[in-house]
Write a structure and sequence with these properties.
about 450 residues, single chain, Rossmann fold, nine-stranded mixed sheet, six-stranded parallel sheet, Dihydrodipicolinate Reductase, domain 2, about 35% helix, 14 helices, alpha/beta
């Protein structure tokens, strides 16, 4: 790991992301004694330092139920503000002065992706790159070509080991729990192979629409917004081999999964758009942007050969849930004498990584008074049993301040995930309309039908 940061510079400190995620995360890090450096906010608005602290105070009081005033005062005492346009060199002169000779600053770009290169180039021109780390948000590029171009230009300024690409799904405690659930339990790992698993499903469902994000979402769509990044990263943790040997072990194992995956086949994918999407402010009236996508992938390695990987994500669906379903092979029917043990359907191991995180294990039990089996569930609620987890940005910011890359995708991973989905961008399947409150286009059912159908997420 690198030298601990001696300054955190947040570009876009007055923006929506900072209000929703950054300020609450900084408060919790301060509460735990994990934030030991100054926080320099950079934004376009002309604010005094006291106006920034007032903004931070109001944001944190609104976000947190029980605020410790001494902790809040500690955080606010660290805040400094620099206002101006990101393309103005004078801003970086003032930033250098505010840094006061810091040798290991972290520059966090909580800004639109199109500003990443511009800010990086200005930091280089101001000679602020040496010893520094750079945090950038997703999306990293809009397709394989643009991602490669962005990476080439960005790494010419900041070497790869100084870049931290945030995918906040990897900071979710339930997502990290996937690896521990697999490798810390003798019950699961022997089953986690093609001999016992008939399919893997990942569903990310939202029961709301695009709402006020129309202008942004219409340029992105479901595939770019959540599949290329979030859901493929979750899949890598579900499918990877046990990590070992070095700090980059998890990253190497995730990369192995993606390198074993052929490109997506447009003939095995469905794109949908909910009715009414084109009336959302900011959305083009002839928009072909998908708000739903379902696809089938494969992993061509010894563990998963022949096991279909089914992924779906969409808006305006019947529930809000993110689940991984590891569907086990059916047991054979048994018969002795005149009796028959019939077990229709499959048993699932369900990892809930969205709301109500936990795990559900489907098993069969004898129906009382009858010689037949029925499905029952063993259920574990992570928060109830283990306590409330830290928020994703809290963990990711702390790791970046320490220089720990474990939960940040390396460039090779980003490149592979774009390669996998690129055919769906080059030759997108036809767009099909679906009614809000349904599970997307009816044709999406056909993808999962040969494998027992999609599992309806728990609506707890």
């Amino acid at each position: 790991m690198s030298q601990p940061a001696d300054a955190l510079v947040v570009f876009g400190i007055t923006g929506d992301l900072a209000r929703r995620m950054t300020f609450p995360a900084l408060y919790h890090l301060t509460e735990q004694g994990l934030l030991s450096c100054r926080v320099i906010g950079v934004g376009r608005r002309a604010l005094r330092d006291d106006e920034l602290t007032e903004l931070a105070r109001d944001t944190i009081l609104a976000a947190e139920e029980d605020v410790d005033e001494s902790v809040l005062d500690d955080l606010l005492s660290r805040l400094v503000y620099i206002g101006g346009d990101a393309e103005e060199s004078s801003l970086y002169d003032r930033l250098r002065e505010a840094l006061g000779g810091a040798s290991a600053p972290v520059f966090y770009l909580a800004t639109p992706p199109e500003t990443f290169l511009e800010v990086a180039e200005e930091l280089a021109a101001a000679e602020l790159v040496e010893g520094a780390r750079l945090i950038v948000e997703k999306p990293f590029g809009t397709d394989l070509r643009s991602a490669r171009e962005l990476n080439e230009r960005l790494t010419a300024i900041f070497p790869e080991e100084q870049i931290f690409r945030i995918d906040h799904f990897l900071g979710k405690e339930p997502v990290q729990d996937i690896m521990y659930l697999r490798f810390a339990n003798a019950l699961f790992e022997p089953l986690w192979t093609r001999e016992h698993v008939t399919s893997i499903q990942i569903t990310m469902a939202e029961d709301f629409g695009v709402e006020e994000r129309g202008a942004f979402y219409d340029r992105v769509g479901a595939l770019r917004d959540v599949v290329q990044n979030h859901l493929l990263q979750v899949l890598a943790l579900v499918a990877m081999e046990p990590p070992s040997g070095g700090d980059d072990a998890i990253a190497r194992r995730r990369l192995d999964v993606f390198r074993a995956m052929p490109e997506a086949d447009p003939d095995r994918a469905i794109r949908g758009q909910y009715r009414g999407y084109r009336e959302v402010p900011g959305v083009q009236r002839t928009s072909e942007t998908e708000t739903f996508v379902a696809l089938e992938l494969v992993i061509e390695n010894w563990r998963w050969a022949g096991v279909p990987i089914l992924i779906r994500a969409g808006k305006c669906l019947p529930a809000t849930a993110t689940e991984v379903v590891v569907r086990l092979e059916r047991v054979p029917q048994l018969r002795w004498g005149r009796r028959r043990l019939h077990t229709p359907g499959n048993d699932d191991i369900v990892l809930r990584v969205g709301r109500d995180p936990g795990v559900t294990i489907g098993i069969r039990a004898k129906t009382p008074g009858m010689e037949v089996s029925q499905p029952v569930s063993l259920d574990l609620d992570f928060e109830e049993e283990l306590g409330e987890p830290p928020e994703p940005y809290e963990r990711l910011l702390y790791d970046a301040l320490r220089g720990d890359h474990t939960l940040f995708p390396h460039w090779e991973v980003i490149e592979e995930t774009w390669r996998i989905v690129q055919p769906l961008l080059d030759s997108p399947p036809p767009l099909e309309l679906y009614q809000p409150g349904t599970w997307g286009p009816s044709s999406a059912e056909a993808i999962a039908a040969p494998h027992g159908g999609w599992r309806v997420p728990n609506q707890r």
